[in-house]
Structure formats: C-alpha cells, structure tokens
Amino acid sequence: MALPRTVARFNRVATNRVTRHVATVLPGFAVVMHRGRKSDRLYRTPVNVFVVDGRYRFALTYGANSDWVRNVLAAGGCTIETRGKTVALTDPRLVEDSSHLWAPPGVRTVLRALSVDSYLECAQA
C-alpha cells in the first residue's frame, strides 16, 4: 500500500525543501538526482536508502509510479548524494520483498505498518 498522493504533494512542497539539506549527510538518507523524462530538467529528491547485498535499495513509500522512480527507470540509472559522497547508480529494477528483514529494526516497523513491499534497487556504477 502506497501513501496517498496528497501526502506526496505536501512533502514535495514543504518537507522535501527542509530534508534536502540534511539528506546528503545523514545515515539512511540520500538525495536522488534524476532528469525528467520529458522536460530533461534536473531534479533532486530526498529519499531513504539502504545498501542490501551490495545494491542500493529505496523503499517506495509512494509507489512505483512516483515521478522520480519512473525517471530513474527510464534513464537506466541516477546519481545519489549520501553520507557526504556522490554515487553513480545503474541497473535500476523494481523488486518486491514483504519480509522487511533486510531493514534496520525501526525502519522495518514503519515499512510493515505502511505495508511497503515495493523497492527500487540499483547497482553502483
């Protein structure tokens, strides 16, 4: 179950403007830099990210139809800023994992409560 689009719109206008400034240095966070599929505009979207089995995993709390996810899939990759580093990612793919066992305990609880089972995974380029 994805969060409602109204929450996504609020976060885009309010929360993301604040989060974008700290997501590049905090553990478990990143800013995804991706280009619009039609506009070719560069976007910066704050997200939660985790490394699972050598791949970068993003929980899709708003679902796989979010613009940033569609942009990354269409481009075949993206760049993220995380923990003070810039990392190029490639080979994006959507995966399902309802176990949540890969996630840290606090994150696991939130993902289960929200019924988030869809993820975007990418390999480091």
UniProtKB/TrEMBL annotation:
It comes from the Bacteria. InterPro entries: F420H2_quin_Rdtase, Split_barrel_FMN-bd. NCBIfam families: hi_GC_TIGR00026. This is Nitroreductase family deazaflavin-dependent oxidoreductase. It comes from Rhodococcus tibetensis.
